[in-house]
């Protein structure tokens, strides 16, 4: 048995986890910073970094306590070193390097987005690979071909706003609280997703890239008037706001599902996985499952606990990197961009 300590500090969640053999999650502690950033309507990098400094030691201690393990039980330390907020990443990377040196344990670097791609496999009785992986989060919307945990090929990515970013911006336009994803999902329940037709940007016919800036602008002008950025929200009833939320959400889901099925058609794969913060969206999960069932494809969505940024997915993918001999040096640095 190989036991990995996973550390995640890429954005606004401080997390640590103990995972055995890349599959058995013994602990997964996540300290959210939502309350710290809510009044600003988004993540403030300086506040996020400071909170990681304040919380990381206790988070690691709690994860190890829940798992009933000591440093002697740890075989390697996995840490997110890309992509993310560089200041936030530095906190986790510095902590991991310090523990690696002090405990004499190997250090493993993990790509945060590829960890989201792996997250749907956690707790499954058998690996879902090869698969098309849709990763939808606040900063990234990507499609991957995943042949194995350490063999992940990028097929398409967002050219502007990520889906999660669009959710946050539209929630702000509609006067809904931060974070916008869960609030849009909540407002859309029971509302009419066909009340308004917002654009579905598909780019080129065979493109697997995404663009969500247009739909954000379309919602803005629908609420306030063409070319206007304020003044229209107070004229809308709660029912009208909910219908706009539902129509926006449906447009985003339609694009995500269609692009994912296009990736399936282009690769011939028969399995689909979805991960990332927006993978918790109920409409997206049900639409993807329905599309996969219609085509007799296997479908696996990351469990809710593994949709948000978390140490379990870092430790789980870190295990496979470790087994592949991908050991980082103590010169490991934080990189805000993906590989």
Describe it.
The protein has helices at residues 34-37, 45-66, 86-103, 112-119, 163-173, 180-188, 213-224, 238-267, 282-294, 311-323; strands at 3-8, 13-20, 24-32, 76-82, 107-111, 131-136, 141-148, 151-157, 271-275, 298-301. It is α/β, with parallel strands linked by helices. It has two domains: 3-119 and 307-323, ATPase, nucleotide binding domain (Nucleotidyltransferase, domain 5, 2-Layer Sandwich); 131-302, ATPase, nucleotide binding domain (Nucleotidyltransferase, domain 5, 2-Layer Sandwich), CATH 3.30.420.40. The chain is globular, with a radius of gyration of 20 Å. The chain starts with a strand and ends in a 16-residue tail after the last helix.
Bulk shape: globular
SSE order: EEEHHEHEHEEEHHHHEHEH
Number of DSSP helical runs: 10
CATH topology of the largest domain: Nucleotidyltransferase, domain 5
Class computed from helices, strands and strand pairing: alpha/beta
Give the distance, in angstroms, between the N- and C-terminal Cα atoms.
Answer: 29 Å
* CATH evolutionary superfamily of the largest domain: ATPase, nucleotide binding domain
Number of strands: 10
The CATH architecture of the largest domain can be given as: 2-Layer Sandwich
**CATH level 1 name of the largest domain:** Alpha Beta
C-alpha Rg, in Å? 20 Å
Assign a percent range to the helix content: 40-55%
Give the averaged pLDDT, no decimals. Answer: 95
Main-sheet strand order equals 3-2-1-4-5
How would a crystallographer describe the biggest sheet? 5 strands, mixed
Q: How large a portion of the residues is in β-strands, by DSSP E?
A: 15-25%
Uncertain spans: none
Number of domains: 2
């Amino acid at each position: 048995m190989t036991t990995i300590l996973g550390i995640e500090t890429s954005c606004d969640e401080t997390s640590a986890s103990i995972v055995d053999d890349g599959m058995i999650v013994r602990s997964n502690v996540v300290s959210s910073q939502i309350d710290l950033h809510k009044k600003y309507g988004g993540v403030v990098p300086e506040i996020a970094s400071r909170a990681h400094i304040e919380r990381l030691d206790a988070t690691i201690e709690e994860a190890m306590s829940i798992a009933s393990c000591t440093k002697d039980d740890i075989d390697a330390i996995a840490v997110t070193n890309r992509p993310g907020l560089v200041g936030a990443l530095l906190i986790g990377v510095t902590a991991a390097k310090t523990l690696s040196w002090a405990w004499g344990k190997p250090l493993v670097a993990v790509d945060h987005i590829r960890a989201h791609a792996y997250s749907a496999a956690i707790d499954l009785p058998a690996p879902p690979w090869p698969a098309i992986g849709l990763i939808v989060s606040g900063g990234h919307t990507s499609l991957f071909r995943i042949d194995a945990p350490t063999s992940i090929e990028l097929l398409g990515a967002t050219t502007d706003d990520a889906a999660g970013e669009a959710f946050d911006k539209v929630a702000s336009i509609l006067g809904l609280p931060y974070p916008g994803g869960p609030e849009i999902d909540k407002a859309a329940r029971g509302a009419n997703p066909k009340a308004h037709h917002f654009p579905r940007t598909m780019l080129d016919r065979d493109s697997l890239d995404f663009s969500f800036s247009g739909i954000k602008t379309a919602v803005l002008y629908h609420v306030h008037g063409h070319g206007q950025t304020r003044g229209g929200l107070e004229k809308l009833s709660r029912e009208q706001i909910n219908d706009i939320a539902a129509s926006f959400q449906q447009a985003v889901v339609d694009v995500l599902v269609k692009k994912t099925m296009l990736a399936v058609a282009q690769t011939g794969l028969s399995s689909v996985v979805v991960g990332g913060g927006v993978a918790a969206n109920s409409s997206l999960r049900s639409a993807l499952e329905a599309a996969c069932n219609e085509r007799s494809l296997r479908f696996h969505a990351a469990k809710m606990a593994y949709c948000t940024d978390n140490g379990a997915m870092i430790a789980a993918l870190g295990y496979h990197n470790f087994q592949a001999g991908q050991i980082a040096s103590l010169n490991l640095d934080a990189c805000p961009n993906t590989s």
